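thread: overnight batch results

M.L. [08:02]
morning all. the overnight job finished for the chain we discussed friday. pasting input first so we're all looking at the same thing
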Amino acid sequence: MVGELPLASSMQEPKISGMLMKRLCLVLSALVLIPHTLAQVDVSLSFKKDFYLADEFILAELTIVNFSGKTLVFGEQPNWLTFSVESSRDTLVARQKELDIMGRFEIPNAGRGIRRVHLVPAFRMVDQGRYRIKATVEVPELELRMSTQEAELGILTANVLWEREFGWVSEGLGSEPEVRRYELMRSVSEKSIELYVKVSDQYRERVFGVYSLGNVVSFGQPERQVDRLSNLHVLFQNGARTFRYAIIKPDGRLLLQQRWDYSDTRPRLKLGDQGLIEVVGGLRQLSFDDIPSPDQLSEVRERNLEQAQSSQEEESIDESRELEPSAVSPEKPLSDENQL
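M.L. [08:03]
and the structure it wrote out:
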């Protein structure tokens, strides 16, 4: 009987080893297959800045890396890309409008593709605080639905330095005059102090543009004037001897951006002989981020001069019909340098 014990033990050992091996194989298969499937496509989400103002355009950058072994097609189905936005209070931000995500593009094997999507005004992140944003991508060819890791950004408040209501008529036929509002705001974050511009209707219900004009020094105040075409001119100091000059259109677009330096005199805004506002004093410095680029600047200036002259001629004709020549006086730009 003693001799039979090893035999019984040897008969049970293959059964136990077989069960263990089967379970081990299943676990290893799961560990190997799942990462392999997910590793075929890699998706990530990023933003250019950590902090934004309420109603500022927030551009999400979705990066897709393809290692599936074949070319993948995106952007053909309306639900191929979705976003979820959650506030710091764990509350989901409702989507108010459709996102502009359509447009076919292909990513070859071992290739990378980037799709940029404006989250505002589809998602209104207006309350101060942190927000967590996640993107989900569907890949029908691989029967995959993948989500990015959450990316965080913060919404800041800003102090209004100056504001001005102005009348404006758009270029469309039959357009009615409307009242819009310019606002210059200063925002302080952990890393910088930035000067923002906001263009909205007079009630601040419709926002046509909110964006940063750049870093600004903590001392001094920006110069600002509104010209005959209702463009806003802003000159502000952003360094010990450097300045930024910007022109903003009534529709919220940034028309011009330049760098100016101290020379023997300080740069300042002045009404020119042609009725246009320009920078005098200081020294103009070409910069990589000029808007427009230096080779396009002369073309833009000539076009603005033609518009100003045309507007001045039309006003002169209208005024001459109603007033005596001696009563006609040149119109001055709006300026509030002493009203901050």
